[in-house]
């Protein structure tokens, strides 16, 4: 082994070890380069208007495909996974209104960004002058693609990254740095013939395997859409008022999901006590108390109450309460 190879290997091992110490489930490395295979896929998805009103998805097309346009001299993309799956006793009762599990506790942007900044500072302290940026779902970075390239999982038919023995209930974040590291290789796709996520989606957002029409997703209607929710989806949103976990809940791989160990992701105690009537009568003051530093603040009080009213109207007769299956993947 050449000395340069040895140094690169030692640096890579240090970064992965430190990431684990900071609480990340997994850390994978990929070479910072142009995403040639993704370019036509992204262009086709945008041309089919599957991003709906999410205009930002069409911005910075070139930067989404090339991390070297985001970080000068970028050589490596470090992908990291952070578990957010709540223990069963911490989950909202299935017979009340639901918010996506990722939004139970403190906004993940704050939690993960703090960890990433610490990791970058540790890298600089250990190795020397290293330039880079941290990314947490707030810049034109194709996080699932990079995580797939670095061997952290495969992108399933529901377009979520899925990790063997873990599932998909985790956040993905990146460090893009100008340091050459040992890249990891991708793993194979283990979805097989399973189509549980496709069959379970009430709005048919996954009409084609591996392609999700974002403009039909329940998360889109409850978070991104600023207009009134279309009447044609009345009764199809079930009891979801912020986000949706259906395609993950039915995924057989998520039977492996284990509870997270991050105190900041714990839900406000009062949240678990709320029944549907409590949700319907939520005040601005209670909203602020429950979701002070939560991702739910993105939709705002007006957006949340709009959705609550929509899903509790008489036509909303579809309530999704099925738990994740326990049969083999």
From TrEMBL:
Its pathway, per UniProt, is: tRNA modification; tRNA-queuosine biosynthesis
Report the InterPro entries cross-referenced here: 4Fe4S_Fe-S-bd, 4Fe4S_Fe_S_CS, QueG, QueG_DUF1730
Q: Which residues form the active site?
A: 137
Which UniProt keywords are listed?
A: 4Fe-4S, Cobalamin, Cobalt, Cytoplasm, Iron, Iron-sulfur, Metal-binding, Oxidoreductase, Queuosine biosynthesis, tRNA processing
One Pfam family cited in the UniProt record for this chain:
Fer4_16
Give residues annotated as binding [4Fe-4S] cluster 1. 191, 194, 197, 251
What's the domain of life for this entry? Answer: Bacteria
Q: What class of enzyme is it?
A: oxidoreductase
**Where would you find this protein in the cell?**
Cytoplasm
An example GO BP is: tRNA queuosine(34) biosynthetic process
Gene Ontology terms: cellular component? cytoplasm
Assembly, per entry: Monomer.
Q: Which HAMAP family match?
A: QueG (MF_00916)
What protein name applies here?
Epoxyqueuosine reductase
- The source organism is Hymenobacter qilianensis
């Amino acid at each position: 082994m050449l000395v340069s190879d040895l140094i690169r290997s030692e640096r890579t091992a240090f970064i992965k070890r430190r990431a684990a110490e900071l609480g990340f489930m997994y850390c994978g490395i990929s070479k910072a380069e142009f995403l040639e295979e993704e370019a036509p896929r992204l262009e086709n998805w945008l041309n089919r208007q599957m991003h709906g009103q999410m205009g930002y998805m069409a911005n910075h097309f070139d930067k989404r495909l090339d991390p070297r346009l985001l970080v000068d001299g970028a050589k490596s993309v470090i992908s990291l996974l952070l578990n957010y799956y709540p223990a069963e006793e911490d989950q909202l009762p299935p017979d009340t209104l639901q918010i996506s599990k990722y939004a139970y506790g403190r906004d993940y942007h704050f939690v993960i960004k703090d960890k990433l900044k610490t990791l970058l500072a540790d890298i600089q302290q250990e190795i020397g002058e290293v330039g880079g940026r941290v990314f947490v779902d707030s810049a034109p970075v194709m996080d699932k693609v990079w995580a797939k390239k670095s061997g952290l999982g495969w992108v399933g038919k529901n377009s979520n990254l899925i990790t063997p023995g873990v599932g998909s209930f985790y956040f993905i974040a990146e460090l893009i740095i100008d340091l050459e590291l040992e890249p990891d290789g991708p793993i194979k796709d283990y979805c097989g013939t399973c189509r549980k996520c496709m069959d379970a989606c009430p709005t048919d957002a996954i009409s084609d395997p591996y392609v999700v029409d974002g403009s039909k997703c329940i998360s889109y209607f409850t978070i991104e859409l600023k207009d009134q929710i279309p009447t044609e989806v009345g009764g199809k949103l079930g009891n979801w008022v912020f986000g949706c976990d259906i395609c993950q809940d039915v995924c057989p791989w998520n039977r492996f999901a284990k509870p997270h160990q991050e105190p900041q992701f714990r839900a406000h105690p009062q949240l678990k006590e709320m029944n549907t009537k409590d949700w319907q009568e939520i005040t601005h003051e209670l909203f602020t108390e429950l979701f002070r530093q939560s991702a739910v603040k993105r939709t705002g009080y007006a957006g949340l109450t709009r959705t609550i009213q929509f899903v509790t109207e008489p036509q909303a007769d579809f309530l999704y309460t099925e738990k994740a299956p326990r049969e083999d993947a």
